Amino acid sequence: MNGRRRAIAVLTALGACVLALAGCSGETAEEPIRTSTIVLAADGSFTQCRVEDFEREDYRLEELDGMIRQEVQDYLGGVSEEEGTVAVEQVSHLEENRDRVMVALHFADSAVYGDYRAQVDQQPCELFYGTVREALAAGYDLAPVLRDVKKGTAITSEQLEKIGDNRVVIFEEALQIRCPSKVLYVSENVQITDAGYVDGTEGEGLKYVVIK
């Protein structure tokens, strides 16, 4: 693995490489993480997941685990992971492919995520996860980009006013998104997978997802 390239994925059950989550369609889905993914929680926190090739001639898994945990500790400045805003959830090989590695980092909110990526990874990126009202206050223009998932129609100003307390995730990276509740509106540069997840791995620019 070169520099800080790392693989990140989340496992909710120890010893298993499968997630049992509520898919973005609102239905329970059980599917391994095989691509870079963010798993959203209803409280505004999330787990950032990345999956990449593991060059075993450069690192052992234990060394990668130790490096990531040290980076998190350095970022927290002596605060324990239990009390801090970032925590390591897991570092492991993909069960089905030992040449790929998965790690899970949990972030308290998107502001922490952005700060961590800029300071530790030195790769600033844009990601917002909060309410629609907070997104509008932050300067995001949602009305021109959001489409109703079922109807495919553009959101109206009246509908936008009604969903002020709903959460929206806005991201730029090539990621899959797993949501804690049903998706209501998305931008045109994302797709809903058969398992009910949001696929933003192909689209360009900022991607928008509003959940129930």
Architecture blueprint of SSEs:
Layout: E1 19-22, E2 28-31, E3 37-40, E4 46-53, H1 61-76, E5 86-94, E6 97-107, H2 110-121, E7 127-131, H3 132-137, E8 147-148, H4 157-162, E9 167-171, E10 175-178, E11 183-186, E12 191-192, E13 198-200, E14 207-211
Parallel strand pairs: 3-10
Antiparallel strand pairs: 1-2, 3-4, 4-6, 5-6, 7-9, 8-11, 9-14, 10-13, 11-14, 12-13
Shape: globular
Distance between the termini: 38 Å
Order of helices and strands: EEEEHEEHEHEHEEEEEE
Q: What is the mean pLDDT? A: 85
Helix content: 10-25%
> Low-confidence parts lasting 5 or more residues at pLDDT below 50?
1-22
What's the main sheet like?
7 strands, mixed
- Rg value: 17 Å
Question: How many structural domains are formed by the residues?
Answer: 1
Number of helices: 4
Number of strands: 14
Structural class: alpha+beta
Strand order of the largest sheet: 5-6-4-3-10-13-12
Share in β-strands:
25-35%
Could you characterize the architecture of this molecule?
This protein is α+β, with helices and mostly antiparallel strands and 212 residues long. It has one domain (19-211). The protein contains 4 helices and 14 strands. It has helices at residues 61-76, 110-121, 132-137, 157-162, and strands at residues 19-22, 28-31, 37-40, 46-53, 86-94, 97-107, 127-131, 147-148, 167-171, 175-178, 183-186, 191-192, 198-200, 207-211. The protein has a 7-stranded mixed beta sheet. It has a 5-stranded antiparallel beta sheet with strand order 7-9-14-11-8. The longest helix is centred in the first third of the chain and has 16 residues, at 61-76. It is globular and about 55 Å long. 30% of the residues are buried. Residues 1-22 have low confidence and may be disordered.
